[in-house]
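job 3f2a | input accepted
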Amino acid sequence: MKDDYIIEMLNITKEFPGIKANDNVTLKLKRGEIHALLGENGAGKSTLMSVLFGLYEPEKGEIRKNGKRVKIKTPNDATSLGIGMVHQHFRLVDVFTVLDNIILGAETTLFGFIKRMVFPSFLKDFIVFISSFVSWWVSTAVGSSKIRISLSR
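job 3f2a | predicted structure (153 res):
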């Protein structure tokens, strides 16, 4: 296996009013490795991952994927690069169905409304697999099911 990094977050700085959440942080990940990001509450772990996923833009630093500099300004940018995030707290819409939550952000729309019969191609096999419960309301799901739904996004 090559020593090249699949993800490099180089010298990332992210500030909020009155606080520097990440100060010149570098994180390098190799393909096939498993990592844990540990630290006290308020240490900046979630902020760093939110920068990688496009929820926040850093004030300084750069992100590289497979050695190439990338700009991640939105979660859609991250998703298009194959970067996903399972949030510490569920980011599910309780009044939506399981399917609505899974396709949220990747849905096909017409005049601002979801076209229910058109699904992103990457979901077709998955939808057949889970067809027995995609119409459930997320509000009726228990914790472990909510984790599965979050992972499916």
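job 3f2a | The helical segments are 45-53, 75-80, 98-103, 124-129, 143-152.
job 3f2a | closed
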